[in-house]
Amino acid sequence: MESKFKQLRERAIFLERVFFKGYLAKWLPISVTVGLAAGFTAIIFYEMLKHSTSLLLEGFAGYSPPAPAGEGETAFKFSDNPYLIPLVTSLGGLISGLLVYLFAPEAEGHGTDAAIDAFHNKRGEIRIRVPFIKMIASAVTIGSGGSAGREGPIALTSAGVGSMLGKIFRVSERDKRIILAVGMGAGIGAIFKAPFGGAILAAEILYIRDFEIEVLVPAFIASVISYSVFSSVYGWQPIFRTIDWHPYINIFDLIIYGFLGILCGLIGIVYVKSFYGTKSLFDKMNIPRIFKPAIGGLILGLIGILVPQVLGTGYGWLQKIIDGDFSAFTSIPLLFITVLIFLKIIATSLSIGSGGSGGVFAPALVIGGMIGASTWLFFKSIGVTIDPSPASYVIVGMMSFFGGVGKAPIAVILMVSEMTGSYSLMVPSMLSTAIAYVITGKNTIYVSQVLTRSDSPAHMSEYAIPLLTKIRVKDVMTRDLVTISPNATAKEAAELMAKHEIKGLPVVQDGELVGIVAFSDILRVPAEKRNTIKVGELMSRDILTTYPDESIFQAFEKMIHYQVGRLPVVEALGSRRIIGIITRSDIGRIYELKMNQLILEKSEETY
């Protein structure tokens, strides 16, 4: 007994080694390559964005937005001539519209959704030109003051790079989808200096209530590589500076954080509805699409004259609020920041919903952070004793808001923790984010997300086998048989096949199946002999059959294995009494019908 156990253990160890050796041999080089490509792509995009902002928003409009601590913490400067702001935002929208709609319409909007759509519906493929157009258009949109973020552009760009590498490595369609998702997570993990969160995001953001588990291991490797490449150039410090505190959380604090989660959930619904309402409004405009981002930019610029805080990513303003510096938010910061929350929603809807190019992650973090700040200011104003610094509420608000609207609660908690360098707020962030996630329900900023893996076309084949095994041959077979006698001539068989547009006939004698004659059998007979040669001489007696209670999946397997297009249906296993016939097209037809019904049911559940 002991020796048998030892043998089993050795076999298990051997299989484990073989598996991991094969797995790593396949995915390690792919993950490292994707990570390197995503890291360098993030550097290129970051530089494009920095120079575009310097040229357009700062150079032409004279407005210098603040930067967060991890990106240099530059001081802000309001424009001496604010009326130039609408001109610059309009110009940025026009350039972005020209680039996107003339060269790569897929680059429109916030990018991440396009990458998600490519995973589910386009076999993990993104056109080669899309990443390049997306980078340029997004750099122009954000650099000219568009209220957008870096996540969408880098997600689509890195996903596009992943798609290209999938073609180079000549992997299967399934692996190509995985590489696309890995590229998306690696790019986000690099540019936000959040490798752990970026890797989790790659697996979580594809679904509303599910994970793409196969993505995780290669995403961890790729995200660490991309983060290392990016941070070796721009430093290893987190994007936001926070004080090193370890807050004592009590029941009363958790009640306030729960209230913050409710606010984030409710305002999150407003964000989603406003964004797609604005997009629908611009879609209905009867003007050339290339001009729509310019119109959105113009309206944004007019708002920016009075409230320049809505322009750009807004990360610098978040840093000021985290630091407790409200000096740039008028003498009534609670009122100003509350208004700013909704103006930022409008600004983002105009910038991206009009057809501009940029991400929705950064605006969501800013909106969530502002909600956290306004919550802190409100309770402080009514004399409630809470944390002396708004930082914890700002950070939890950032997590909760995007966790709700982005349907990625786990990833965003990790990402924001990495972006702020603080992991001490896990408990309140879990509570607040969970509440926001539940309240937002099926409202998501990423409309290409599907509910679960079973709803994704990428995984439909996994659910096709159970579907096909539930359908019986008797439910699909044709009972109106066209048969022929073994005594009929080859010419009669050919005429019967031509009349019914079929390529084979069951040969029946006294109700019993005795053979199958195919059109190819007839073609082997010279035309002048078809009147004399009998079907019984041509038919195949090696008959492959199915029976009524067999599943159509089993019948289809037989067809594929033996390379036949039809199967006679006999009364029972071992019988020769024919009662029908089933073809590949019959199975294909019922499969398509059932799958369409399944997709429709899932769509109704989702919406």
Could you characterize the architecture of this molecule?
- It is built from 22 helices and 4 strands.
- The two termini are 58 Å apart.
- It is elongated and about 105 Å long.
- Helix content is 62%, strand content 4%.
- With 607 residues, it is mainly alpha-helical.
- Helix 1 crosses helix 5, helix 3 packs parallel to helix 5 and helix 9 runs parallel beside helix 12.
- The protein has 2 domains: 444 residues, Orthogonal Bundle (Clc chloride channel); 127 residues, CBS-domain (Roll).
- The strands form 2 sheets. A two-stranded antiparallel ribbon has the order 1-2. The protein has a two-stranded antiparallel sheet with strand order 3-4.
Number of helices: 22
CATH fold field value of the largest domain: Clc chloride channel
Radius of gyration: 31 Å
Write the CATH architecture name of the largest domain: Orthogonal Bundle
- Counted up, domains total 2
What is the string of SSEs from the N terminus onward? Answer: HHHHHHHHHHHHHHHHHHEEHHHEEH
Describe the secondary structure blueprint for this structure.
Elements: H1 2-60, H2 85-103, H3 112-121, H4 129-143, H5 151-169, H6 173-191, H7 195-204, H8 216-234, H9 251-284, H10 292-306, H11 315-322, H12 333-353, H13 361-381, H14 391-405, H15 409-420, H16 426-440, H17 460-469, H18 490-500, E1 504-509, E2 512-518, H19 519-523, H20 535-538, H21 552-562, E3 566-570, E4 578-583, H22 584-606
Antiparallel strand pairs: 1-2, 3-4
Helix pairs in contact: 1-4, 1-5, 1-6, 1-8, 2-4, 2-10, 3-5, 3-6, 4-5, 5-6, 6-7, 6-8, 7-8, 7-15, 9-12, 9-13, 9-14, 9-16, 10-12, 11-13, 12-13, 13-14, 14-15, 14-16, 15-16
